[in-house]
Amino acid sequence: MAKRFERSEHSDRETELLEKAARLLPASARTPTMSLKAAMIVCEGRGSKLVDISGNEYIDYLLGSGPMFLGHAHPAVVAAAHEAALHGSSYLLPNEPSILLAEEIVAAVPCAERVVFASSGSDATFFALRLARAYRGRDKILKFEGGYHGQGDHVLMSNQWTREAPDYPQPSPNSEGIPQSIQGDVLVAPFNDIETTADILTRHRDELGAVIVEPMQRTIPPKNGFLAGLRTLTAENDIPLIFDEVVTGFRLAYGSAQEYYGVTPDLCALGKSISGGHPISVVCGRDEIMRYAEGVRRLTGDYVSLTGTFSGNPISCAVALAIVRELKQNGVYEALFARGRRLMQALEKHLGNAGVPVQVLGEPPAFQPWFSDHEIFDFRSSQGADAALGHRFAQLLLDRGILKAHEKFFVSMVHSDEDIDVTIDAIECEPERRRQRRGTEIGTTIQRQGCTHHRRRIRHGASDLHSPRGRGCAHSRH
Ligand SMILES: Cc1ncc(COP(=O)(O)O)c(C=O)c1O
Known about the structure:
Blueprint: H1 12-24, E1 42-46, E2 49-52, E3 57-60, H2 75-85, H3 96-108, E4 114-118, H4 121-136, E5 140-144, H5 180-183, E6 186-189, H6 194-204, E7 208-213, H7 226-236, E8 241-245, H8 256-261, E9 267-270, E10 281-285, H9 287-290, H10 314-327, H11 332-353, E11 359-363, E12 366-370, H12 379-382, H13 387-399, E13 402-403, E14 409-410, H14 417-437, H15 441-449, H16 474-477
Parallel strand pairs: 3-13, 5-6, 5-7, 7-8, 8-9
Antiparallel strand pairs: 1-2, 2-3, 4-10, 9-10, 11-12, 12-14
Bound molecules: pyridoxal-5'-phosphate.
Pyridoxal-5'-phosphate (PLP) is lined by residues 65, 120-122, 125, 148-150, 214, 244, 246-247, 271.
């Protein structure tokens, strides 16, 4: 029998801290679902669970936006961080963990011949683009509409938060403060549309320094032949192809999305999944391009600057090394995929049974139910999905003890079969109640008490997804 969850109200302390956060931290006062009702102050992460300071324990599918791939406070990660910290935290100079980690990355990731460390995913995509432009001697980049590559000025355009989509290949900035001149160096193509991409790329080939793509764009998988077509087009024109694997790296497979989808780029960016929540990211790729970062080139002029005070620091590298070694164990990806697939199938089934048009897109370690009855294959088709319903669904799950980003489920290596069962219970609760309401004894009990798993304050059901305000549990209305 699944454990019952009842989300308690914000404690006085949590309310006080939330108010302070709103006042003091304009960029960081985030909520998991973008709704104030979901706001929380986290006090602890343990395995697959996150605990807020009012004492609510959630099954965590947010995973810190992806880094906690091995779960929170994994013993191997804690031990590696502790041991490394005993020897100092940052030297700037090379250290053993960074070299051993580079060796593991080169062995695992198909495109990796050499490695440069940085601190965040944004750094890594920014560095990869700079390397590519230097190698190619051209300034423009081509990115895909809806793709997110972090906060660099060039890539913070036409991503998933774009409101107005101009004609291709015009970009649309996603932030104020990006110099106007940078827009002229960015071209935008539709994901999964190789013909339009080929047309743009061919017209602009002499100006292009790089093509950057998320191999699985957010949770939209590539169509058959799209990545291979991109590989052929860029190779024919000697334009470096960059896979942004900050999310997919070591997550879709040990060799990352490039192994999973069978297409090898020239460069790739890694980050979250090997970080265990520590500041580390990676640019890796072909020696011919990576060699521009060699320090001796400072003297000859053909040098690409990719340094950072914390790059390759021993704590982050020791942690990443421990993670990569855990991921190397036999059977870990098979188990992860089995659990993720079970949850994807349950979402499709139970939301479908509740009469909600849904497509569960992505791969078992990272996916999203998109509320739409039209096929979603790129940014523009995704705009037809009901985003408000997505937010309500995330809120409804939160009220049942399940934490997810409004845009994604991340499944970790430590989510247990029981976690998945409890999550499925939370999703199927309402259709079950409707069946029961048709006359069984249990139905009568539930009418009095609320859903067996989610009594008292947990009043929303899957059918409330149809209501703009969430009208409360069907039982509580009778
Ligand atoms: C695909 C992708 N690339 C890059 C980034 C930026 O990474 P970071 O937030 O570590 O700078 C993100 C972050 O969400 C991402 O999803």
